[in-house]
Protein backbone atom coordinates (compact mmCIF):
# COMPACT_ATOMS: atom_id res chain seq x y z
CA UNK A 1 0.00 0.00 0.00
CA UNK A 2 2.80 2.45 0.86
CA UNK A 3 3.80 3.08 -2.74
CA UNK A 4 0.16 3.67 -3.72
CA UNK A 5 -0.44 6.43 -1.18
CA UNK A 6 0.62 9.79 -2.58
CA UNK A 7 -2.18 12.06 -1.36
CA UNK A 8 -3.98 11.80 1.98
CA UNK A 9 -7.10 13.70 3.02
CA UNK A 10 -7.74 14.01 6.76
CA UNK A 11 -11.00 15.47 8.11
CA UNK A 12 -11.24 16.77 11.67
CA UNK A 13 -13.76 19.43 12.68
CA UNK A 14 -13.46 21.30 15.96
CA UNK A 15 -11.49 24.03 17.69
CA UNK A 16 -7.74 24.52 17.62
CA UNK A 17 -7.38 22.24 20.64
CA UNK A 18 -9.00 19.42 18.69
CA UNK A 19 -6.58 19.97 15.81
CA UNK A 20 -3.57 19.83 18.13
CA UNK A 21 -4.91 16.60 19.65
CA UNK A 22 -5.27 15.26 16.09
CA UNK A 23 -1.62 16.04 15.27
CA UNK A 24 -0.18 12.69 16.49
CA UNK A 25 -2.40 10.89 13.97
CA UNK A 26 -1.02 13.01 11.14
CA UNK A 27 2.56 12.66 12.38
CA UNK A 28 2.30 8.86 12.34
CA UNK A 29 0.72 8.93 8.87
CA UNK A 30 3.60 11.03 7.58
CA UNK A 31 6.14 8.63 9.08
CA UNK A 32 4.39 5.67 7.46
CA UNK A 33 3.83 7.34 4.08
CA UNK A 34 6.96 9.47 3.75
CA UNK A 35 6.28 10.65 0.21
CA UNK A 36 2.60 11.42 0.67
CA UNK A 37 1.14 14.91 0.97
CA UNK A 38 -1.41 15.54 3.73
CA UNK A 39 -4.43 17.83 3.32
CA UNK A 40 -6.50 18.64 6.39
CA UNK A 41 -10.15 19.68 6.17
CA UNK A 42 -11.09 21.71 9.23
CA UNK A 43 -13.17 24.60 10.51
CA UNK A 44 -11.84 28.04 9.48
CA UNK A 45 -11.28 29.03 13.14
CA UNK A 46 -8.63 26.31 13.42
CA UNK A 47 -6.56 26.90 10.29
CA UNK A 48 -3.69 28.26 12.43
CA UNK A 49 -2.70 24.64 13.11
CA UNK A 50 -0.65 24.77 9.91
CA UNK A 51 1.71 27.25 11.59
CA UNK A 52 2.61 24.69 14.26
CA UNK A 53 3.78 21.84 12.04
CA UNK A 54 5.40 21.14 8.69
CA UNK A 55 3.55 17.87 8.05
CA UNK A 56 0.31 19.52 6.86
CA UNK A 57 0.72 20.50 3.22
CA UNK A 58 -2.71 22.07 2.81
CA UNK A 59 -5.63 23.16 4.97
CA UNK A 60 -9.14 23.09 3.52
CA UNK A 61 -11.55 25.36 5.45
CA UNK A 62 -15.06 23.94 5.77
CA UNK A 63 -17.36 26.36 7.58
CA UNK A 64 -19.90 23.98 9.10
CA UNK A 65 -20.76 26.32 11.99
CA UNK A 66 -21.82 29.59 10.40
CA UNK A 67 -22.76 28.70 6.82
CA UNK A 68 -25.01 26.00 5.39
CA UNK A 69 -23.10 22.92 6.47
CA UNK A 70 -24.57 20.74 3.73
CA UNK A 71 -23.43 23.18 1.06
CA UNK A 72 -19.99 23.30 2.67
CA UNK A 73 -19.77 19.50 2.78
CA UNK A 74 -20.86 19.32 -0.85
CA UNK A 75 -18.01 21.68 -1.75
CA UNK A 76 -15.62 19.42 0.14
CA UNK A 77 -16.99 16.40 -1.72
CA UNK A 78 -16.48 18.09 -5.09
CA UNK A 79 -12.98 19.21 -4.10
CA UNK A 80 -12.03 15.70 -2.98
CA UNK A 81 -13.09 14.32 -6.36
CA UNK A 82 -10.97 16.90 -8.18
CA UNK A 83 -7.80 16.11 -6.21
CA UNK A 84 -7.60 12.32 -6.67
CA UNK A 85 -6.76 11.48 -3.06
CA UNK A 86 -5.58 7.94 -2.35
CA UNK A 87 -6.66 7.76 1.29
CA UNK A 88 -9.11 9.59 3.54
CA UNK A 89 -9.54 9.45 7.31
CA UNK A 90 -12.21 11.23 9.32
CA UNK A 91 -12.62 11.67 13.06
CA UNK A 92 -16.37 12.32 12.87
CA UNK A 93 -18.75 10.17 14.88
CA UNK A 94 -21.81 11.01 12.79
CA UNK A 95 -23.39 8.19 10.77
CA UNK A 96 -23.37 10.49 7.74
CA UNK A 97 -19.55 10.51 7.67
CA UNK A 98 -19.21 7.04 6.13
CA UNK A 99 -21.58 8.05 3.32
CA UNK A 100 -19.59 11.24 2.70
CA UNK A 101 -16.30 9.34 2.51
CA UNK A 102 -17.79 6.71 0.21
CA UNK A 103 -19.14 9.38 -2.15
CA UNK A 104 -15.67 10.90 -2.42
CA UNK A 105 -14.61 7.88 -4.43
CA UNK A 106 -11.32 7.57 -2.56
CA UNK A 107 -9.90 4.04 -2.58
CA UNK A 108 -8.91 3.73 1.10
CA UNK A 109 -11.42 5.11 3.61
CA UNK A 110 -11.09 5.03 7.42
CA UNK A 111 -13.47 6.29 10.05
CA UNK A 112 -15.11 5.32 13.32
CA UNK A 113 -17.67 2.53 13.49
CA UNK A 114 -21.17 4.05 13.53
CA UNK A 115 -23.22 0.99 12.60
CA UNK A 116 -23.49 -1.62 9.87
CA UNK A 117 -23.50 1.01 7.12
CA UNK A 118 -20.05 2.22 8.14
CA UNK A 119 -18.75 -1.35 7.84
CA UNK A 120 -20.14 -1.55 4.31
CA UNK A 121 -18.93 1.83 3.08
CA UNK A 122 -15.52 2.15 4.74
CA UNK A 123 -12.36 0.18 4.09
CA UNK A 124 -12.22 -0.21 7.86
CA UNK A 125 -14.66 1.06 10.49
CA UNK A 126 -12.58 1.48 13.63
CA UNK A 127 -14.15 1.04 17.09
CA UNK A 128 -14.56 4.38 18.87
CA UNK A 129 -13.02 4.30 22.35
CA UNK A 130 -13.77 7.57 24.12
CA UNK A 131 -12.42 6.38 27.46
CA UNK A 132 -8.82 7.40 26.74
CA UNK A 133 -6.66 10.41 25.98
CA UNK A 134 -8.23 12.10 22.95
CA UNK A 135 -5.02 11.94 20.90
CA UNK A 136 -4.97 8.17 21.34
CA UNK A 137 -8.65 7.98 20.42
CA UNK A 138 -7.97 9.77 17.14
CA UNK A 139 -4.85 7.69 16.56
CA UNK A 140 -6.94 4.51 16.58
CA UNK A 141 -8.26 5.61 13.17
CA UNK A 142 -4.97 4.72 11.49
CA UNK A 143 -4.31 1.47 13.36
CA UNK A 144 -5.30 -0.53 10.23
CA UNK A 145 -2.54 1.11 8.14
CA UNK A 146 0.44 1.58 10.47
CA UNK A 147 2.06 0.20 13.62
CA UNK A 148 3.73 3.55 14.26
CA UNK A 149 2.30 5.29 17.31
CA UNK A 150 2.78 8.93 18.27
CA UNK A 151 1.58 9.29 21.86
CA UNK A 152 1.18 13.06 22.13
CA UNK A 153 1.22 16.23 20.02
CA UNK A 154 4.53 17.66 18.86
CA UNK A 155 4.76 21.34 17.92
CA UNK A 156 7.68 22.39 15.74
CA UNK A 157 9.07 25.65 17.13
CA UNK A 158 10.72 27.89 14.56
CA UNK A 159 13.58 28.90 16.82
CA UNK A 160 15.46 27.59 19.83
CA UNK A 161 13.82 28.64 23.10
CA UNK A 162 15.57 28.87 26.47
CA UNK A 163 13.66 28.31 29.70
CA UNK A 164 13.51 31.31 32.02
CA UNK A 165 13.96 30.02 35.56
CA UNK A 166 11.51 30.96 38.30
CA UNK A 167 8.81 32.00 35.83
CA UNK A 168 5.18 30.97 35.95
CA UNK A 169 3.08 31.77 32.90
CA UNK A 170 -0.67 32.04 33.43
CA UNK A 171 -3.32 31.86 30.69
CA UNK A 172 -6.95 31.87 31.96
CA UNK A 173 -8.24 30.29 28.74
CA UNK A 174 -11.70 31.84 28.71
CA UNK A 175 -13.81 31.18 25.64
CA UNK A 176 -16.58 33.74 25.11
CA UNK A 177 -18.53 31.17 23.13
CA UNK A 178 -18.30 28.63 25.98
CA UNK A 179 -19.47 31.20 28.52
CA UNK A 180 -22.33 32.26 26.24
CA UNK A 181 -23.39 28.64 25.90
CA UNK A 182 -23.22 28.07 29.65
CA UNK A 183 -20.09 25.93 29.69
CA UNK A 184 -17.97 27.29 32.55
CA UNK A 185 -14.65 25.46 32.83
CA UNK A 186 -12.40 27.74 34.82
CA UNK A 187 -12.12 29.65 38.10
CA UNK A 188 -13.21 33.26 38.62
CA UNK A 189 -10.99 36.27 37.78
CA UNK A 190 -10.95 37.09 41.51
CA UNK A 191 -9.39 33.71 42.31
CA UNK A 192 -6.87 34.05 39.45
CA UNK A 193 -5.88 37.41 40.96
CA UNK A 194 -5.39 35.86 44.42
CA UNK A 195 -3.20 33.12 42.93
CA UNK A 196 -1.02 35.64 41.10
CA UNK A 197 -0.66 37.81 44.23
CA UNK A 198 0.48 34.82 46.29
CA UNK A 199 2.98 33.73 43.65
CA UNK A 200 4.45 37.24 43.39
CA UNK A 201 4.75 37.57 47.17
CA UNK A 202 6.60 34.24 47.23
CA UNK A 203 9.20 35.63 44.79
CA UNK A 204 7.96 34.02 41.59
CA UNK A 205 8.01 35.94 38.32
CA UNK A 206 4.48 35.79 36.92
CA UNK A 207 3.58 36.42 33.29
CA UNK A 208 -0.11 36.91 32.53
CA UNK A 209 -1.20 36.38 28.95
CA UNK A 210 -4.30 35.75 26.89
CA UNK A 211 -6.05 36.49 23.64
CA UNK A 212 -9.10 38.53 22.63
CA UNK A 213 -11.52 36.08 24.26
CA UNK A 214 -9.71 36.53 27.57
CA UNK A 215 -9.77 40.34 27.53
CA UNK A 216 -12.60 40.91 30.03
CA UNK A 217 -11.24 38.25 32.36
CA UNK A 218 -7.70 39.63 32.17
CA UNK A 219 -8.83 43.19 32.89
CA UNK A 220 -10.80 42.03 35.94
CA UNK A 221 -7.79 40.02 37.16
CA UNK A 222 -5.51 43.06 36.93
CA UNK A 223 -8.05 45.35 38.60
CA UNK A 224 -8.44 42.90 41.48
CA UNK A 225 -4.74 42.18 42.04
CA UNK A 226 -2.99 43.87 44.96
CA UNK A 227 0.48 43.20 43.54
CA UNK A 228 0.07 44.50 39.97
CA UNK A 229 2.90 47.04 40.55
CA UNK A 230 5.25 44.30 41.71
CA UNK A 231 8.40 44.28 39.52
CA UNK A 232 8.06 40.51 39.11
CA UNK A 233 4.70 40.87 37.36
CA UNK A 234 4.64 40.97 33.55
CA UNK A 235 1.44 41.94 31.76
CA UNK A 236 1.60 40.11 28.42
CA UNK A 237 -2.01 40.58 27.41
CA UNK A 238 -2.42 40.65 23.63
CA UNK A 239 1.33 40.39 22.98
CA UNK A 240 1.17 37.02 21.20
CA UNK A 241 -0.14 37.62 17.69
CA UNK A 242 -0.51 34.01 16.55
CA UNK A 243 -0.32 30.41 17.73
CA UNK A 244 3.40 30.09 17.11
CA UNK A 245 4.16 33.13 19.28
CA UNK A 246 1.99 31.64 22.03
CA UNK A 247 3.83 28.31 21.67
CA UNK A 248 7.19 30.08 21.98
CA UNK A 249 6.03 31.98 25.06
CA UNK A 250 4.79 28.80 26.74
CA UNK A 251 8.03 27.01 25.82
CA UNK A 252 10.07 29.76 27.52
CA UNK A 253 8.30 29.45 30.89
CA UNK A 254 9.48 27.15 33.65
CA UNK A 255 5.87 26.36 34.57
CA UNK A 256 2.54 27.02 32.88
CA UNK A 257 -0.90 27.30 34.49
CA UNK A 258 -4.09 27.25 32.45
CA UNK A 259 -7.64 25.96 32.20
CA UNK A 260 -9.12 23.20 30.08
CA UNK A 261 -8.59 25.11 26.82
CA UNK A 262 -6.45 25.13 23.67
CA UNK A 263 -3.30 26.55 25.37
CA UNK A 264 -3.16 23.33 27.42
CA UNK A 265 -2.60 21.32 24.24
CA UNK A 266 -0.04 23.85 22.98
CA UNK A 267 1.87 23.37 26.24
CA UNK A 268 1.81 19.59 25.82
CA UNK A 269 3.13 20.07 22.30
CA UNK A 270 6.16 22.09 23.46
CA UNK A 271 6.83 20.02 26.58
CA UNK A 272 6.50 22.70 29.28
CA UNK A 273 5.69 21.62 32.85
CA UNK A 274 1.98 22.33 32.98
CA UNK A 275 -0.72 22.60 35.63
CA UNK A 276 -4.34 22.59 34.49
CA UNK A 277 -7.42 23.64 36.43
CA UNK A 278 -10.14 21.07 35.80
CA UNK A 279 -13.75 21.20 36.92
CA UNK A 280 -16.63 19.65 34.99
CA UNK A 281 -14.59 17.96 32.24
CA UNK A 282 -12.67 14.68 32.36
CA UNK A 283 -8.92 15.31 32.62
CA UNK A 284 -8.15 11.70 31.72
CA UNK A 285 -9.35 12.40 28.19
CA UNK A 286 -7.56 15.73 27.82
CA UNK A 287 -4.05 15.29 29.21
CA UNK A 288 -1.49 12.60 28.40
CA UNK A 289 -0.10 10.27 31.02
CA UNK A 290 3.23 11.32 32.48
CA UNK A 291 4.68 13.62 35.12
CA UNK A 292 4.81 16.88 33.11
CA UNK A 293 1.06 17.66 33.07
CA UNK A 294 -0.82 17.81 36.38
CA UNK A 295 -4.56 18.37 36.86
CA UNK A 296 -5.55 20.77 39.64
CA UNK A 297 -8.81 19.55 41.15
CA UNK A 298 -11.22 20.85 43.78
CA UNK A 299 -11.65 18.82 46.96
CA UNK A 300 -15.38 18.52 46.40
CA UNK A 301 -17.73 15.59 46.83
CA UNK A 302 -19.74 16.04 43.64
CA UNK A 303 -21.02 12.60 42.69
CA UNK A 304 -21.62 13.31 39.01
CA UNK A 305 -18.37 14.95 37.87
CA UNK A 306 -17.01 14.93 35.29
CA UNK A 307 -20.39 15.86 33.87
CA UNK A 308 -19.74 18.22 30.96
CA UNK A 309 -20.16 16.24 27.72
CA UNK A 310 -20.62 13.07 29.78
CA UNK A 311 -24.04 13.88 31.25
CA UNK A 312 -24.89 17.44 30.17
CA UNK A 313 -24.10 20.08 27.58
CA UNK A 314 -23.99 22.93 30.10
CA UNK A 315 -22.38 23.20 33.51
CA UNK A 316 -24.53 23.24 36.64
CA UNK A 317 -25.12 26.41 38.67
CA UNK A 318 -23.32 25.19 41.78
CA UNK A 319 -19.94 24.45 40.14
CA UNK A 320 -18.67 22.74 43.28
CA UNK A 321 -15.97 21.21 41.07
CA UNK A 322 -14.36 24.64 40.63
CA UNK A 323 -14.51 25.78 44.24
CA UNK A 324 -10.89 25.83 45.37
CA UNK A 325 -8.68 28.32 47.18
CA UNK A 326 -5.61 30.20 46.01
CA UNK A 327 -3.59 28.14 48.52
CA UNK A 328 -4.92 24.93 46.99
CA UNK A 329 -3.69 26.02 43.56
CA UNK A 330 -0.36 27.51 44.70
CA UNK A 331 0.53 24.37 46.66
CA UNK A 332 0.82 22.56 43.32
CA UNK A 333 3.15 25.22 41.94
CA UNK A 334 5.63 25.52 44.77
CA UNK A 335 6.94 21.99 44.27
- Low confidence ranges: none
Helix/strand order, N-terminal first: EHEEHEHEHEHEHHEHEHEHEEH
The helix tally amounts to 11
Any idea what the radius of gyration is?
A: 21 Å
The counted number of beta strands is 12
Report strand order across the widest sheet: 3-2-1-4-5-6
Q: What is the share of helical residues? A: 25-40%
Q: SS-based structural class?
A: alpha/beta
N- and C-termini, Cα separation: 50 Å
Mean pLDDT: 93
Keywords for this structure?
6-stranded parallel beta sheet; alpha/beta; 335 residues; 32% helix
Question: Can you walk through the features of this model?
Answer:
The protein is an alpha/beta fold. The protein is built from eleven helices and twelve strands. The protein has helices at 16-32, 69-83, 96-103, 116-121, 134-139, 176-180, 189-201, 215-224, 243-252, 262-270, 326-333, and strands at 7-11, 37-42, 58-61, 87-90, 108-112, 124-126, 164-171, 205-210, 233-237, 253-259, 273-277, 293-296. The longest helix is centred in the N-terminal third of the chain and has 17 residues, at 16-32. It is globular and about 60 Å long.
Q: Secondary-structure map with pairings?
A:
Elements: E1 7-11, H1 16-32, E2 37-42, E3 58-61, H2 69-83, E4 87-90, H3 96-103, E5 108-112, H4 116-121, E6 124-126, H5 134-139, E7 164-171, H6 176-180, H7 189-201, E8 205-210, H8 215-224, E9 233-237, H9 243-252, E10 253-259, H10 262-270, E11 273-277, E12 293-296, H11 326-333
Parallel strand pairs: 1-2, 1-4, 2-3, 4-5, 5-6, 7-8, 7-10, 8-9, 10-11, 11-12
Helix pairs in contact: 1-10, 7-8, 7-11, 9-10
